[in-house]
Amino acid sequence: MSMLYDQGYVMAATAGRRFLTAALVASIVAAPAAAQQVAPPPVVPTVPTAQTPVAPAMALPELTDAQARQLADLIDKDSIAQGLRADSAPQAVKLDKDALVGAALDHAKAVHAGRLDTADFQLEWGIRPQAYDPRPAFIDALKRDRLAAWIASLPPPYAGYDALVAGLARYHALAAAGGWTALATGPELKLGASGKQVLALRQRLAIEDSQLVATGDKFDAALSEAVSRAQRRYGLNPAGVVGAQTVAALNVPVAARIRQIMANMERWRWLPAEIEKNRVQVNIAAAVLTVFDGDAPVMSMKAVTGRPGAETPMLVSRIHSIVLNPPWNVPSTIADRELWPKEKKKPGYLKANGFRIIDTGGGKRLQQSSEKSALGRYKFDFDNQFAVYLHDTPAQAGFARFDRLSSHGCVRLEKPADLAKLLMKTTPEWTPAAIDATVAAGKTVRAKMADQVAVYLLYWTAFANPNGLVSFRDDPYKWDGTLATKIEARSATQALAAR
Q: Full-prediction pTM beyond 0.90?
């Protein structure tokens, strides 16, 4: 099995802060054979259906003057470091001691379990942080005079989060140094080119790439390699040639990159302290699926995820069965928007494409036969409120693209047969041979898995290595900007309330 990897972290399911296994993050390129794109660091969230009750109010010790000064300074600096506000300018915290305690508890909740309020979550953000009460640990820190250690213990216990903290600090430093100047659009730049545009490109790349010398107006091999490195970080075809897509990625302002990092840090805060070692993960933004066995990536493949307007939701569930040769029960929204109009325009279209009309008594719905099903030969079922699933597809051409967000919300898979056989390895009656024979026979069969497997659909657009070198992906759903704005708005509201 051939898999392509980049530096990253696989979370180990062990207790305690940052006991994580450094590993190569499974990733697949979204392009022809030469390509090599990376999926963001694999992580796992949780969706608790009920919040843990918060303990009754407990008496808080009074701060000493020294503790008050220390706490005010810690909160100010940590708010920047943890991405709770986009600016990096220190802000003096002038609060009385009671208000300062309130600010400290609020800060702890924001860093440990997320800044958002329940009302801030969009429907498609189907994961939620677990309830968290910071008071017991805060009281203990006050009594033992260990406030700095308490603040340091608050962030999510994942190396991937720590890497983004380092990345955020790096981008704040770049912003303080003036960021970068946008490159002019123009003809494609490649080996052999020279002139002012090449010099500007070299200078721009050198801001984020310490391996590149910033002087010289020749497009040489070193510059081509630097372009390829940048293209890998942005999820583009690493051909070493600079076209409109690469220029657009390089021209995203540093302030926007900071907000993008902030948004992804917030999503890390929605995750549990422990994860399941055996799981299937999909990065929606990168359109990549990775399977983990004992925390180790054992399979990865390209996927096609929801296009903007038909977003694939973030969620967690468990795959319980695989439908072989599945018919497609067409959602009414797709039928009304796409299929009925095609039949009206070209009578006979539905029959020619294997659709039959089913009278439900309260209306009509469409079902496409398994022989021509848009779901291909495999459908992976898991319970969720969005009616999405993983599935095969006869439209294989979509996997050759870098931009693979074109489904109606479900996740299409490049290698569904391989995934089915892997997930069924603990189900004796469903051997690889039995699966192949059933698929070949063409009969629709629901194969129940002996052991359900956790599945996570996640949205990661920024991730970093331990040195703070950040890779970015496009934000096709515009969720990053929305989330960063909500974080800042809540932070500002809390700051005003505390004063």
A: no
